[in-house]
Amino acid sequence: MSARTLLFTKSLRSRSYLSFPAYAKSLQRPLSVSPSSPLNASPTKNELPPLPPKQWIPDLRARLGKCIIFGCSNAQISRAASVLRALAVEWKDLVAGSEGFLTGGRRGLDGRQIAWGEMDSFQHVNNVNYYRYAESARVNWITNFAVHVDSAHRQQWAELMTPKSTGLIMKSLKADFKFPMVYPDKISVYHKLRCKPEGDPAPSNFMLDCIVLSHQHRRVAARLEEDIVVYDYKVARKASMPGFMLQLFHKTWEMQQAEEMRARTRIWELIKAVEGLEKETWDREDAVEDMGSAVKNSA
């Protein structure tokens, strides 16, 4: 193993980028694309790539670690570092974006620190807090339109969160908890439209999907679905979605579709890059592991 490879491997270990037991157990590549995969079938320009496997981030790290330990050239080390850098920097946008969630700005909660007091006697974040996270993110999602997107209707967007005129009422809120989060951790919470609101007259309700991302685990900790009703407080009854709201929701839906395409394409590019490194290192017919200078000196 070259000095640069050894130094890079130690650096990865110190930064907890790699889970060495994970790839030591098996030589299989669970994220490999099969010949029948849509990505190998020359998809059309507008064809949406499939969702990646659930554990694609830790799996890619483990597979890169195996390539590095087996022995890489300087150029291969640089390519591996590029993928690891992308996983470290882009993971949040890719995990959320692959399902159509828009990140950045004030579209939700971004990097919110979990408080120690939010844990309960079972030493994990109490379930009630997930509803609060979703509530705060939903308010940010709505007010983002007023502040950063549609300044012409800023007052109307702001009033949606008040009982002054046309507002929003939560009809139902359901949660699906994936794993227990504990302190310390950070979360990012995002919303998206479940479907494009259409109809004549305009619909009086809409569905939102919400995800709570754990920064420590870099995956979804909880999913929520929200059924929201447009309500006219002046006449005390349901109302059709205002025109400015319907128009902007249509644009938001298109942005969600575009982000879903971009994020999935990027993820599969990273998977392909790792597969390329595997085929150039341990997964080639004449592969011989670099055992380092100790073996050479003993010969």
TrEMBL record:
<protein>
    <submittedName>
        <fullName>Thioesterase-like superfamily-domain-containing protein</fullName>
    </submittedName>
</protein>
<dbReference type="GO" id="GO:0047617">
    <property type="term" value="F:fatty acyl-CoA hydrolase activity"/>
</dbReference>
<dbReference type="InterPro" id="IPR050563">
    <property type="entry name" value="4-hydroxybenzoyl-CoA_TE"/>
</dbReference>
<feature type="region of interest" description="Disordered">
    <location>
        <begin position="30"/>
        <end position="52"/>
    </location>
</feature>
<feature type="compositionally biased region" description="Polar residues">
    <location>
        <begin position="30"/>
        <end position="45"/>
    </location>
</feature>
<dbReference type="Pfam" id="PF13279">
    <property type="entry name" value="4HBT_2"/>
</dbReference>
<dbReference type="InterPro" id="IPR029069">
    <property type="entry name" value="HotDog_dom_sf"/>
</dbReference>
